[in-house]
Every structure is written in C-alpha cells, then in structure tokens.
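User: Could you write out the 3D structure of this protein bound to protoporphyrin IX containing FE? I've included everything you need below.
Assistant: Certainly. Input first, then the structure.
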Amino acid sequence: MSLANSTQSFGSVTKTFHWLTALLILTAIPLGWFANQLPYDTSEEVARKAFFFSLHKTVGIATFFVGAARIFWASTQAKPTPLHPDRKAETWLADLVHWLLYGSLVLVPLTGWIHHAASEGFAPIWWPFGQGLPLIPKDEAVSATFAGLHIVTKWVLIGAIGLHLAGALKHHIVDRDATLRRMLPGASVAPSVQVTRHPRSPIVAALALWLVAIGIGGVTGAYDDHAPIAPAAATLDVANTDWNVQDGTLTIAVQQLGTSVEGSFSDWTAAISFKPRDEVGPAGTVDVIVSIGSLKLGSVTAQALGAEFFDAATFSTARFKAEIVRTEEGYVAQGPLTIRDQSVSVNLPFTIDIVDGTASAIGRLDVNRLDFQIGQNYPDESSVGFTVGINFALTARSDAGN
Ligand code: HEM
Ligand code: HEM
C-alpha cells in the first residue's frame, strides 16, 4: 500500500492519521462530558474530577498536535475523487463536513487550552509544557469567553461527526460502495472513477457555519462568566491611625492540585502606631481588619468564599491585632490572627524603610489553614495544600513626624 494518497485512494499515512485522530477525539468527548458533570463537594470528589479533567486535557492536547500534523500532511496530498460525482449535493455536504472536521481538530482543543491557560487553579495538563500559554493572561473574562467557545465549537464538532458517521454508514450499508472500505486499513480499494475537482465553496460554507455557531453562542450568553456569585464583601470603616496607608497589597497563595494559586484582598484597613528604633524592644502596634468578601482567587473565588473555606457570609472579616517588636533579627508583629473566629498567635516578620516620612513595609507569613478550620472536608493535601502563604506590601505616611 502506498504511503501517499492518489486521486483514487487514501495512502497509509492518511489512514493512520484519520483513525488516530478519530480515536483521540472520540476519547476526548466522553472524558470532557464525564469530568464536567462529576460533583466536587469533598476532597475525594475534587481529586476524582481533577483526574478526569487532567486526562481530558492531556488527550485533547495530543489531538491538537496530531490534528495539526494531519492537516499539514493533507495539504501536501491529493484528495481522492468522490465515488459518485453525479450526486452533487451529497458530495458538497460530505466536503463541507470534512472541512468542519478539519477545523474542529484545531479549534476545539485550542479553545479548551486557552480557557485552561487563562484560569487560576484547575486540573493540570500532564504534558510537560507548563500550564500557561504565551500572550494569554490569567483573566476571568478571557477564561469564560474561551470556555464558551470550547462548548460552541464542541457542538459543531459533534454535529459534524454525526453527519460524517451517518454518511459513511449510508455508503456502506445502503449504497454498498467502497467509500468506507477506501478508508479502512489494508490494501487500497481503487475503484477507478473519473477524476473530478472538489469545489471550493464548501470551505466558505464551513467558515460561515463557524461564524454562525459563534454568533449563536454570543446571543445565548455562552461566553458570559457563569462562575457562582460570591457573597457581598463587608465595607470597612477607615482606620484611625498614626500612619496612613497610601497603597498596598495583601495576597495569599495556596497550592491547588499541585499548582500555586494566588489571590488578593482588595479591601483591608490598618491602624498603625509605630516608632522606629535601633535597639531591641517594643516599637508600636498594628490592627489590621480584612474584608474577607473582597478576596479574588481566580476561577475558584466563589468556592474559597463558600461555607467550606472562608465562609464569608458568616465570618465577614479577619483581624490581626499585634504588638510590633524590634528583635535582634529585625521587626516582628506578634499577636492573634483571627479568621473564622479562630484565633492563632502568629509572628509576622517584616522589613521597613522610611524615607521623608513615607514608610515602605514588606512581610510574609505561612499559616496552616486547618488551624482556622478552613477546608475541614479536605483533610489531606491532594487537592488543597495546608500551607497558606500571606504576603503584604504597603506604603504609609506619617503626618505626626515619626
Ligand atoms: C479534541 C479535543 C477536545 C474535545 C473533543 C473536547 C471536548 C469537550 C467536551 C465534550 C466537554 C464537556 C462540555 C459539556 O459537557 O458541556 C469539554 C469540557 C472542557 N474541556 Fe475539552 N475538549 C477537547 C480538548 C480540550 C483541551 C485541550 C483542554 C484544555 C487544555 C480542554 C479543557 C476543557 C475544560 C476546562 C472543559 C470544561 C469547560 C467548562 O468550564 O464548562 N478540552 N471538552
Ligand atoms: C468513527 C467513525 C468514522 C468513520 C466511520 C469515518 C469514515 C470516513 C470515511 C469513509 C472517509 C472517506 C470519505 C471519502 O472518501 O470522501 C472519511 C474521511 C474523513 N474523515 Fe472520517 N470517519 C470517522 C470519524 C472521523 C472523525 C472523528 C473525524 C474527526 C476529525 C474524521 C475526519 C475525517 C476527515 C477530515 C475526512 C476527509 C479526508 C480527506 O478527504 O481529506 N472522521 N472518514
């Protein structure tokens, strides 16, 4: 059997590509559907869902590369002539479906991949390419748009496969011709038909159909962010303080399914009284109040704020009330950190630089989420790590001449 196609038959490379991509796609579809409808209320359920999503994505990316290689190969090959060129409409429809299938080989996995790359904290891809993609930001809107495009392109693919399969079976069972046999492994069946050219209009029709499908997705809200709505954040009163915070960031980092997920609180206040000193001893106090509901943690914000984790609806604020002490090693804020009404005494080391009455401070602290009864139904680290890294950076101004 020849490696290359002829005008009458498919070569072995085309056949191998055809059945390999068919196998990969027909594996990716049920895996995606199955993973999507699995529950994720407990640690075991999250781990199971993540396993099937990782498998789906890994098979999907293999499909992308095999599909791209297949398209490249097809572009160098003759497209065997239709067996019934007289049946114009049927041949045209078969060509249209082939173009939709070729398009799907790229569009379906690529939209899934971009959706994944733009999301924070999700089941990892097992190929060693990393989890991000160049030029794709971690952004909820991008993630939601491509999740919608993945679903829309998937429907076009499923429709095209349905028509493709129906056509192949009709040729085999009703027409009893060589259409299916010509694609099966083994010696090529070359029925020797007069060569006719494939028209170009099915390519245009396929492009138009993709656009219509994408448009229908827009009208039906497929690209909107469907993430569960997080509870409203508590609004904090301005703190009465010697040092006025000008700007700053308060972030947390946690390992989810082996990947670090970063989040930040946009609303917090700090009442600071501080006198720099060179010798060991007390240097002031700090009282930080954080609006828990102001947390953004990528695509898992709503879960993080839900009852199992921060439970923002019941415990709307967290508090760190500490004495600032100068030690041999530098400054440390020592005191109770209270989250979900659980108080744990912590030491938060930080550095501070004061220039012309403006202080820049940076500090970090690791806590164990279980100490605050966060994620008790996740008693091991398989889906959510125990350690939560807390980082702050702020600049504050003192008008009292400190
Ligand atoms: C040929 C390749 C692929 C096919 C045929 C495919 C098909 C599917 C299907 C059928 C679903 C279920 C949708 C539903 O139930 O409504 C799905 C969901 C999903 N797929 Fe794929 N997929 C492919 C590749 C990928 C790749 C490469 C990735 C990421 C790297 C990916 C990520 C996802 C994600 C994250 C979802 C869940 C979407 C959501 O948030 O609702 N897929 N896919
Ligand atoms: C599992 C059931 C499938 C069967 C029975 C089947 C059968 C066939 C047959 C008989 C042909 C030759 C048509 C002709 O001579 O004009 C063909 C071509 C083709 N099939 Fe499939 N197929 C299947 C699945 C798929 C899937 C899942 C894809 C997805 C990408 C696909 C993509 C294609 C393409 C793009 C062509 C055109 C090849 C060319 O002429 O360049 N097939 N298929």
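The mean pLDDT is 91.
User: Perfect, thank you.
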